[in-house]
Amino acid sequence: MKYRYYDIVDQLKKRGSSPGLDAVRELLAVLGHPEREINVIHIAGTNGKGSVLAFLSSILTESGCRVGRYISPTIHSYEERFQINGEAITQEKLEQYYGRMEEALFEMEEWSERKPTLFEVETALAFLYFAEEGVDFALIETGMGGTLDATNVVERPLLTLISSVSFDHKEFLGDTLAEIAGEKAGIIKEHVPVIVSENVPEVCQVIRERAEEKEAPAIFLTEDMAQVKEESVKGSTFIWKKHRFFIPLPGRHQVSNAVTALAAAEKLWEMGAWPSFSWTVMRQGLAKTRWPGRLEILRERPLVIRDGAHNPDGARRLAQFLEKHFTNRRILYIMGVLKDKEYKEMLSFLAPLGEELYAFRPDNPRGLAAETLAEAAKRCHMRTRVFSGVNEALARALLLAKPEDVIVVCGSLSFMEDMDAAIWKQGKLL
User: Fold this and answer.
1) pLDDT tens digits, residue range 115-153?
2) What does pTM read for this prediction?
3) What is the residue-wise DSSP string for 267-322?
4) How far apart are CA 143 and CA 184, in angstroms?
5) CA–CA separation, 248 vs 232, rounded Å?
């Protein structure tokens, strides 16, 4: 069956991106303001906001809550953008909701000149879906910034969270860390508590000033709050507030994201918004977290890892992980990036650890030409090959790689939905 919403999505994509809240406010007004009927936890940040959302969602779900998750981009399917307790909306239900969104857009056109973008329509749809499904909490991830992000239409969230802030989307958010942090801090609301992941002092200062301006209680987390006891490619064990936790997402940065989720859950309990608090629930929730595309191991021999690193800070964290665990193994990158990303700086972190790079252009209007990426990699003293897509590159890499090699698929989350599982599943999975 061909669902009509795919055609609607394709048409809305042509409207591009337009930061601002007016259009989404008007659309939500037509829908009856469903965003006012749900308990929203709003999450912003450059890197890590999706992981924080995944950890917190898993904790709250473990306690028996009904938890909505609105995320983008997605790994396996478009429908994953709208989830309840980790289950994506069905195609049949999404068809119904897009039919209603289409009706709302027609009604809006009768009195407004504004034309909502795809992200604005998706945001409104998520609020409507979660309100009608009666979720206990709706975890809402910003798309790009904060202040003018469509999700910031929420006037009174329960809690706001800000993960790691670094350089990205400079053309929209600013050229300095302070400017970018200011945009992320735009989600902070008057008297609403904000939890902030470990960040550099410059970022913390901007967020602290915004929180004081809004009289919002702020909790700033630091690296020394958690003691990492063990790290491996299968995850990390750490101590926080004298309690031991295990997370199945590898990388030191995921410990920071997990602590942010723990602090958020504890704050919800202190506020009386989450009566199901227990250390057992927190521990089991973290241990059951699943978040594909983040240092995700797809195959064992050769080892295939995919990671959504798409900016310099993400590339730096990926490089730290590779250097820690695979110093004496040959690393081959399969990489596609978007042309508005700082791919040369990304390569400066990744190239010293890798021997070869297979470049391809993501199937995206913003995709960088594979030849351009390959030329930049050559200047970093890497051997390169050019391919038409991620699946062709991965198939070739698996054919040529030795069992002890490490293949890393990275550069963007945008192409991961296109990856063909049949290619890597020809080997044993961890």
Assistant:
1) 999 999 999 999 999 999 999 999 999 987 889 999 999
2) 0.92
3) HHHHTTS-TT--HHHHHHHHHT---TTSSEEEETTTEEEE----SHHHHHHHHHHH
4) 11
5) 9
